[in-house]
Every structure is written in structure tokens, then in C-alpha cells.
Design a protein that fits this description.
The protein is an alpha+beta fold and 349 residues long. It has 10 helices and 13 strands.
Length: 349
């Protein structure tokens, strides 16, 4: 990638960060399966004295769902799970009695509720950020609230659904999520900085991430916010390793391509969510079905301290390209805005 294009890419990121008042961002671009450009922009501290490292580590938040979905589909390919089988076939005392298929949970069409808007949850995160609810407490939300709608009849984003999938994997295989990640992604791709965070001791290397959830002032959450508050578990990674994983997944190097096609087949349409033109929800992936850059598939993530995105563009300037972006302050899909700002530059180059 020539210096002129690199300069324009930097300018696009700088403008997006300035508009969103972000301290910094790490980005990575993978073209035709090869790392083509990585960059740390801005600063890791609010006083703007320490540059943000090119290999800064972040919680990838809900991009973790794409990895959980890949692990579930791998078990489908092994004959251990059935996509259209009810979760109750494998988990007899699942806290909701109505049959819900794995496909419905993967596509957020299960009717399972979420906890993000619950006052009790938000008050608990603020009061005891280092002491998360147990998985049983998160599941209690599902059993006490019941289904939002009959499975398969509507759509509602559910972290609890992906908690159920993670626990199901553990029940069926006897292996934690880290083992599935190691087998499918980390060992084959030679990744060294990606892992499932389980405790505050695991995350001493997280880049500072700034949030206002604890007070009116921006504060670094990186050593305070326990990963267990992300009910389905949360992966720590770098922009470069995240781009590598998403590229390998979407291009059929992790799962059989027929399963990737099912992941990227929209089950429900969510309409336009700029910069995405028409968002469809597949199985652990969001898909932009009206993009000028070919089929776009990936996932975004956000939570205290970070905004993340990893998307694969099937025909960006004629090349399959994956872009990952991570900012070190929470924001309304700023990671997606950064990724698309880069995509626009590459499309016009």
C-alpha cells in the first residue's frame, strides 16, 4: 500500500475520531488474506501524552458473538448439535420451557429477553464493577421475564441467548470457550494476543478505555470492569488479530463454506443503519445487503471503554478486504464509522 493512500487513510481516521471526541483508535486492514495496513492513531490517555500502540488490546465485546457462533456451527458440522433442534434437546432444565432452536438463538429471533435496559443490572455494574452477576443470575432474567415473542416470529437482540449458547457448548463438549477458540482460530492462524478474559487478573494488559458509567467524568475502566459483566464471555484481542480472525471466518478458512453461507444469510432485516445501507441479521453476523462494496458481513461491539467493529467487504476496490477498528472510549458505533471511513478511502483509491 503506497504512502499516499496511507496518508489519506490516516486523515479519514483522524477526522472520524475528532468528530466523535475519541482519544484514539487501532485499525487493521487485511486484503486478499494478507495483512496490508495496521495503525495506532491518537493517544491511549486523555492528556494526550502516550500514543496508542498499534498492538493495543481491547475487549471486543459483542464481536465475541461471531466466534461463539463459529464454535456452535463447528459442533453442528461434527454432528454434535443440530441447528434446527431445540436447545432443550441438549439442556433438559433450560430455564425457558418453550422450544427454541439453536438457529433462532443464533439469529436473535428466539424471543429471549436481554438485561441491558434493566435498572438492577445498570445499578449493579456501577456499584460493584469488579463483582459481576453469575451466569445463573443472568439466566434468571430469562426465566423471570419470559419470552418477548414466540420463537421465530420477530427479532430482538439478546446477550442472554449467546450466554445460553456458550453454556451449551460447555455442556455438550466439556470444554470451555477458550479451548474452542484455540482449536478453531488461535492455533491455525498463529495468533498470540487473543484470549477469553475470565478475571481482572487476566486483563492487566488492556489498553485504557474511557467511560462515564461510573460518574459524570470520563474514567479508565480497564482494571475495574470485570469481564464477567459480559454474560456470554468476552474476548480480548488486537485490531490486527481481530481482522485476521474475521477474514478467515468469512472466507471459509475456519468452517465449511456452506456453513459460512448460512451465517451470512439474513434471517431478519433491520433496515438502514448508516453507514450500513440495509442490515440483515444472520447467524452471529450482521450483513449489509445493499452495500456498494459487495456483500459486507461482520459484527460490531460496544461497552464500557471501547467501540469495536470487524467487517469483511467482498469486493472493496475489486478485492476481498477485512477491516477491524477499535476505539478506546465507548461510543455509538464509532468503531463501525471508523471501519467504513477506511472502506470509502480504499474504494476511491
Amino acid at each position: 500500500m503506497n504512502q499516499g493512500i496511507q496518508s489519506v487513510l490516516r486523515g479519514a481516521v483522524e477526522l472520524t475520531l475528532a468528530q466523535a471526541q475519541m482519544p484514539g483508535a487501532a485499525i487493521a486492514i487485511c486484503i486478499e488474506g494478507k495483512p496490508s495496513f495496521t495503525m495506532g492513531m491518537g493517544h491511549q490517555d486523555l492528556s494526550q501524552t502516550i500514543p496508542l500502540s498499534i498492538d493495543a488490546s481491547f475487549y471486543i465485546y459483542s464481536v465475541t458473538k461471531s466466534l461463539i457462533a463459529a464454535a456452535v456451527l463447528h459442533q453442528v458440522s461434527e454432528g454434535c448439535l443440530g441447528l434446527d433442534a431445540p436447545i432443550q434437546d441438549y439442556w433438559s432444565d433450560f430455564p425457558v420451557a418453550t422450544p427454541i432452536t439453536l438457529r433462532q438463538i443464533l439469529s436473535h429471533s428466539s424471543g429471549l429477553p436481554d438485561y441491558g435496559g434493566l435498572p438492577a443490572y445498570n445499578e449493579a455494574v456501577k456499584a460493584t464493577p469488579s463483582a459481576p452477576w453469575s451466569p445463573e443470575s443472568f439466566l434468571e432474567v430469562a426465566s423471570s421475564r419470559g419470552l418477548l415473542f414466540d420463537p421465530g416470529q420477530s427479532w430482538s437482540y439478546s446477550n442472554i441467548g449467546y450466554l445460553a449458547l456458550k453454556l451449551l457448548l460447555e455442556k455438550v463438549t466439556g470444554q470451555p470457550m477458550q479451548d474452542h477458540l484455540d482449536k478453531l482460530f488461535l492455533a491455525p492462524l498463529g495468533l498470540k494476543q487473543t484470549f477469553v478474559a475470565a478475571s481482572l487478573d487476566d486483563i492487566t494488559g488492556l489498553t485504557p478505555g474511557y467511560t462515564s458509567i461510573f460518574s459524570d467524568e470520563l474514567e479508565d475502566m480497564s482494571q475495574r470492569y470485570h469481564p464477567g459483566w459480559v454474560s456470554h464471555g468476552v474476548v480480548v484481542s488486537t485490531a490486527a488479530e481481530l481482522a485476521t480472525m474475521m477474514h478467515a471466518l468469512i472466507t471459509g478458512h475456519i468452517l465449511d463454506p456452506t456453513l459460512v453461507e448460512q451465517m451470512a444469510q439474513p434471517v431478519h432485516s433491520l433496515g438502514p443503519h448508516p453507514p450500513l445501507q440495509n442490515v440483515g441479521c444472520g447467524l452471529g453476523l450482521f450483513v449489509d445487503t445493499a452495500s456498494p462494496y459487495g456483500r459486507v458481513a461482520g459484527h460490531n461491539g460496544g461497552g464500557p471503554g471501547y467501540s469495536i467493529a470487524a467487517f469483511h467487504f467482498s469486493a472493496l476496490a475489486g478485492c476481498p478486504t477485512t477491516i477491524a477498528a477499535a476505539t478506546n472510549r465507548e461510543g455509538d458505533n464509532v468503531g463501525v464509522d471508523v471501519a467504513y471511513a477506511l472502506a470509502r478511502v480504499l474504494a476511491e483509491a
